[in-house]
Amino acid sequence: MVTGYVIRKNEYHDSVFLMRVAKRLSEQKGILQAAALMGTEKNKVLLEEIEVSDPEIWEATPSDLIVAVKADSQEALTTVLEDIERWLTMDLGSGAQYDIRMLDEAVALQPHSNLAVISVPGSYAAREARKALEHGLNVFLFSDNVPLESEIALKAYARERGLIVMGPDCGTAIIGGKGIGFANSVRHGPIGVIGASGTGIQEFTTLVHRAGSGISHAIGIGSRDLSDAVGGISFLSALDALESDKQTEVITILSKPPGPLALSNLIPKILQCHKPIVACFLGLKQESLSTDIRHRTARTLEDAAALALQIVTGNLLPRFNAHSPRIQTLIQRERAGKNPEQRYLRGIFAGGTFCFQAQQILQDAGIAAHSNAPLHGNLRLANPMRSEEHTLVDMGTDDFTLGKPHPMIDSRLRRERILAEGQDPQVGILLLDVVLGFNASPDPAGELVSTIEEAKREAKKRGGSLSVVASICGTEGDPQNLQQQVKVLEEAGGIVFLSSAQAARFCALLATSLSEVIGVK
Amino acid sequence: MSNKLEELLQQGPVAINIGVYDFADSLRSQGVEVVHVNWAPPAGGDTDLIELLDKLL
Q1: Domains present along chain A, CATH in parentheses
Q2: Phi, psi dihedrals of residue A117, rounded to the nearest 5°
Q3: What is the ipTM metric for this complex?
Q4: Residue B18: which of A10, A114, A117 has the nearest Cβ?
């Protein structure tokens, strides 16, 4: 094994571009691992962890690019590093029409701008957001690792001026039919959304779209907005704006459980709103809500879509029916080939909200699961890299993504984990999520297919069978082609649902059925 | 005082993108007007120096 690196002084690239470069390099013959990172202190430590270390690397600054490679031969290493210019320029500058370096220049060029989309590293993000607000721009702040006190200050400043900060850590918004960040192509319509979770917004809006209705606006507020510390500052701005918005007929709130103080302040606002509101606080027991609000709450993202659709169209969303012939046939079929020891479910998620929701659905079905991001009442995995009994893993957490591409962009981490689960003789069911839309992987299902087939083959060799259940979040208008994504997963033997809640319900049913076969629960 | 958020919802986004280039690209593909800023860490990424410069300017 050999390692090598190249440093390019004063050459900054964004994180998504660098992930793409690293992915391409790691796919080359003889390359065991590749990293393309800016020279921040954190990144330099990461490089040391993968055994690429040199005093020259420690002298690099956050403006310097470092490409580091671990290879099985000197030849493979040299081939990649000597050609680094080509790898870096492959799709560089694809379409940047002007070389604009400062926000001021951009505002001068496009003075009617009304939104800044900011995705710079967290330690610089608050500064850029503040400048944007000073220019009178609303802010979509994708960056994470923004200090809490900066978030509060930015949001308070924005609210005083009739602006909003969507984020930090905001993955998704849809404004007037235009998707920002990781969003899907959905119909314009009467349902407004305020969401503290990006994948939660994606799931909800695609369910609404596929049921024939549409979204007026989906306003992301960031994962911490409804904490007691922030107190829902952006939530309140979003609620006011959607209440005034003529196109919005119903407002849906999507979030993990808010802080208790934030929730108690928020409930009167919800009750005072003159438009109907549907709230989905995933993981929050309905008993903990006062009776005046309970009838407006939904347990899952799908329940929220069903309620909102019923209000605006009067139509009912087709729901999961455990007794339907299709489900019963699938359960019988999947049960048939199992070894008695194959009783455990493993969920390997790209979307944290899907992992959280699946835990809730399993818990409601009496199934406790381990997780690296456990729902209240579930068990935390001792080691996120090793599953125990029933396990649902959120592969988008820092446990997995430090210095590595997020599974929504690159499936490599998930593929490795799927293979590891497939080698465990006690695993009977794999649950996966596939997320389509702008900025997601161009072929997320296709990237998983050969791994799914291999995991299934392993189970078969042991005389058993592995059930693979997948949910796809997307629409026919998404760049990845929904129908094609469903087809490739089904051809690989996957059972596909277009709702993450339904996929989890099916898994709960199958897991219960498998435990009944061998007499344990 | 005008409410800029309500204006954003009524008019639709006209965006300035700072950071990940792909976000500008996906907005353009939906017909949104976007100016992309080729951002790089100011002052070589030295946060203390940035703070000092912000105070001086």
Answers
A1: 2-89 (3.30.70.60), 103-313 (3.40.50.261), 325-517 (3.40.50.261)
A2: -100, 110
A3: 0.92
A4: A117
